Hints:
With about 200 residues, this protein is an all-beta fold. It has a single domain, classed as Galactose-binding lectin (Jelly Rolls). Helix content is about 0%, strand content about 45%. It has no helices and 13 strands. It has strands spanning about 1-5, 30-35, 45-50, 60-70, 70-80, 90-95, 110-115, 120-125, 135-140, 145-150, 155-160, 170-180, 180-195. The strands form two sheets. The chain has a seven-stranded antiparallel beta sheet, with no helix packed on it. Strands 2, 4, 5, 7, 10 and 13 form a six-stranded antiparallel beta sheet that branches. A hairpin with a 2-residue loop joins strand 4 (about 60-70) and strand 5. The chain is globular. Residues about 5-25 have low confidence and may be disordered.
Amino acid sequence: MSEFPSRRAVVAGGVALAAMGPAHAANQVLWADQLANPGVSTFGTRWNAFTDRVMGGVSDVQAEITQLEGQLCYRMTGEVRTANNGGFVQMALSLPGSQGTDLSDYDGLRMRVRGNDESYCIHLRTTQNRAPWDYFTANFKARQKWTTVDLPFSAFKRARSGSDLDTSRLMRLALVGYGRDFTADVALAAIGFYRK
């Protein structure tokens, strides 16, 4: 597991996205990260990148803070390989609180992403999830241009059968390349939680 480099590692001249106001701003989005302090979320938690190698797999990942088309972003690239019961690369962000973060006033997750026209997942973990393979997941396609993607919480399904997503106790979110052999290349410029 590796943390993203600090702001000092960002190329000179990088322009961070403007920081949003409080959660009750007119646009009704609580931004978890817009790269105002690259590598560190607005909650003060850090991004980490890792692969299935933590369980014996052979996938590889590279994670960096860079610019794509003039947009400061986190970029995750790598090779997802299903050999040795593996099959994932991910960059993850813990949310604050020993009992999770209460996002029950929000309707879903919003992100600004760019990729290589492959399908990716967002995984959410709550205090409901005990095992590493237990999480809530929703899929999306990362287009080859910057796009805003909304994933309503109702779209997240538990990887193992069981209860529905409890958004009052969110512990972690992750951007994941998963489940098949492919080349991952996905960038994230902003991620947060929206309310209608």
